[in-house]
Amino acid sequence: MPTFQTVRGMRDLVGKEAQTFTNIITKAQETALLFGFKEVFTPHVESLDLLSAKTGDEIRQRMFIFEDLGGRQVALRPEFTASIARLTTSTLKNEPKPLKLFSVGTVYRYDEPQRGRYREFWQSNFELMGADKPEADTEIILLTDKFMQVLGLQGYAFKIGHIGIIKSILSQDGIDEKTQNAVLQRMDKKEYDLALKLVNSEKCQNTLQGLIDLKGKDWRDTLEQINALVSGYEKAKDATKNLADVLTLVTSSSEISLTAEPAFARGLEYYTGMIFEVYIPQLEIALGGGGRYNRLIEAFGGESTPAVGCAHGVDRVAIALQTQNAAYLAKVERDVVVIPVNESVKVDALKIAQLLRSRGVSVEFELMGRKMGKALEDADKRGLDYAVIVGEREFKEGSVVVKDLKKREQVTVLLSELFEKIKS
Ligand code: AMP
After folding, report:
1. Among residues 151, 191, 227, 304, which is most buried (max CB within 10 A)?
2. Which are the contacts of 135, defined by CB distance < 8 A and separation ≥ 6?
3. Res 326 pLDDT > 90
4. Rounded to whole angstroms, how far apart are CA atoms 137 and 125?
5. Model's pTM, two decimal places?
6. All domains of the chain in start order, with CATH
7. Could you identify the atom of ligand 1 that is nearest to the CA of residue 117?
């Protein structure tokens, strides 16, 4: 029988790595609570129609699609937003606004696997629906910052743009929505020459080239230059003003390190306003991103509802934590092993293990029936702190032997003092 491997692009997470993921997910849940987002669970499998409606070619072409046994065309979710839009336009349609929903789980995209890029990966996802004000965009950026902070990540930065600037320029140049999306997709991949080839007029090409060339440290300077470049485009001026409002709010209410990048685009098609990414410059990978999508809920049959949201890549956050050796990385707490010296004290030893667990101590029990020497050797190898040895004679006197595996000392301890001894 051949041994089986995981499917390409899919991974097992084991031990410390799994624990790191759990820790990151817990921090995401804490962030959701801090900002008043309600957690929801939606299915991994959704109808193909829903998932492909607004996602954009880029992701549409990389979905895991199949027919279920009832002949339905379905797919594994490549992101959360379509599911959240479905939920918002159905079960939650009468909920008061703003509606703030949080989800965490795996999503699936047929990406080319490499470090930080998998076909099954974890996202924590936040969607804020019903608010059109720059305060709402600001909240999404601030919560991403808070999440990075509570994880203990260092040196991360934001780049912030506005899809409305480029879209307005393109529509004023008479370019239809489909071609606009094609231009944005090429810009997302930094294929600027290909993007510009799709544009009609020289004026438009020059304006876009000007925006592409803009890369300043100071966002106020950058915005001035954007304003100069888009002076002939009324709607692009509005979009620039909106971006300025968001950036002013973010920088006046936080210490976030950010740059304004007007030619920055994102793979998902549904954005209409501010877009952003958070990244660690040395790592050259985005840890998360998002933006405003004011027409999506409507596209799924709901009332016109402005919305803004973001998703963070848990797998990439784990890589960033590892490279920074963050103190926060998984500490697997397995403090104690309880070993009965023979069969006659097995039940008593089990009871002692349960007693310690009820007080929050992580306890392993000797399950292999090994002799004391072997059991201790194993506990040592696994890095446990203490062995609690339950012997007949000691137990009758209300005590056990506690061996400190690090210091290699052992003492007899009264059962009533066992917890204090271990916690000391
Ligand atoms: P998106 O849903 O495309 O906006 O992506 C949000 C975040 O998910 C990105 O910033 C990444 O951190 C993460 N991400 C996207 N694609 C992948 C992938 N194939 N593997 C691991 N993480 C990913």
Report:
1. 151
2. 249
3. no
4. 15
5. 0.88
6. 16-328 (3.30.930.10), 335-423 (3.40.50.800)
7. 20
